[in-house]
Amino acid sequence: IHNQKLNMPPLVRYKIPIIGHTYSYLFNCEEFLKQCKKEYGDIFSIYVWGHVRTIVGKEYAQDILSRDDAFNFSVAFNKKFPGDLLLKNLGPFDPTRLLKDHITCKLDLYSERMQKSLYSATQKYIDIGDHDGPKVFNNMYHLMTRIISTPIANIFIGEEESQYEEVIKTFSEFTSDSAALLKVPPILDFIYPGLQNYFNRILVKSGLYNPATKHQDILTKHIKNQVCKRLEEKKKYGDSWKRPNDFLQDIMERDDFDPINVSYLSLADRMFALIFASIHTTAGGCANAFMDLASRPQYMQELYEEQLEVHKEADENGVLPFEALNKMKKLDSFVRESLRLVGHLTSLEHAVIKNYTFSNGLQVPKDRVVYVYADDVYQDESLQGPNPKSFEPFRHVDKNTVASKISKNYLPFGGGRHACPGRYFAINEIKFFMHNMILNYNFRTESGKVEKRKMIGPAALPSTSGIIIEKKVK
Ligand code: HEM
């Protein structure tokens, strides 16, 4: 009754009750949204999976990101995902603060380790024997989760524990195993909005389906090993103890860590929250950048020459100084282009946490979920420059827009106060990975064509088409 007073965005008309726009949204999303915007304007609502959702066009997209008093990302996420049940021991936790204090400001310190463990993991998982010649890989995303989990585990929980294969497996599989709960189409929401999540919560709570448990057992065991070992060694050697440098050690030295009464479950859950934010996203970024280059051999030589030049600064182990990242200007632009064209049609879903009025007078009620109409932002010439949706890898060179720099025409990391705090870490990892691949391997798509993103409704995933990789002959 309260909401009836609001001047709400127009609801796009539909013919079939209950199903509403679900079918068009799933199978013809790009055209469907274009048509909606044309007929209904910059902000409109659609009826999908039993929920009214509001799609916000480019003119108002920044409101969603900058007005964090009215729009919230986690609240929207928790409406469809039982994160609180999977990570029961998380406790109060500020991942952004922790990342800023202990990861982002130490990226130079971690640079050598990131490179070494990234390169050895690349070699291990790509594993092309010397005589085998070209080899076909059919799911780059899957391969990338393994590769990038290695340096992330190394920096998060240390050199020693990250040597265990089961730890890497847990880092790389936790997100996709948990996200299985998100992949079930929310059919039950047709009966009553929110029923699917209610049902999923019962599955997890009752223990019938808890994808996190096996990973929690593994990670808790390894964290406990390390913490006990470190506390003992510190006691034994006192000031002469050489502290390991990693995120775990930093957490152990924070004021809120109690060495007498350590909660290993809570330490593990904090790691899992960061794993959830970092692995799937970075692996997707790497897979897309790699597929985008494999699809466009015409840019290979230019990028190769840049990497060769940059690599002159490497030491005898092939490790680059941290500053070398800034010299990969063309590669950085390539990565930005790949992230710019990540391909989601709608993204950055946020829940409305208090009624909000846009400057055009339209209002969205508390509890509504709103989406940024990303495709609208990326089709716009005034925002993107000429040929806004064509992949032009060097369009960002010398434009003062490096790949980690958020702006209103570049949304892969969100924006505003909650913009992704892990983006510097992620970009460095993607650049080091690509640098190494471009220098040491030849790769191309098996089809010989440009492989596009795989679309599931409005969401884009890296293509799973075959890629042929072979070692460069030197
Ligand atoms: C290419 C890789 C990545 C992409 C595309 C990405 C994307 C995003 C996006 C879209 C958000 C939401 C921003 C918003 O609400 O406006 C976010 C938040 C976040 N990301 Fe990332 N991310 C990536 C890598 C990482 C990594 C490597 C880490 C950790 C090391 C990380 C940690 C976080 C955290 C903790 C948040 C929550 C911030 C908050 O709510 O204040 N991300 N990320």
TrEMBL record:
It is found in: Membrane. GO terms for cellular component: membrane. One of its GO terms (molecular function) is heme binding. SUPFAM superfamilies: Cytochrome P450. Its main location: membrane. Its cofactor is heme. Gene3D superfamilies: Cytochrome P450 (1.10.630.10). Pfam families: p450. Heme binds at C420. Keywords: Heme, Iron, Membrane, Metal-binding, Monooxygenase, Oxidoreductase, Signal, Transmembrane, Transmembrane helix. Belongs to the cytochrome P450 family. This is Cytochrome P450.
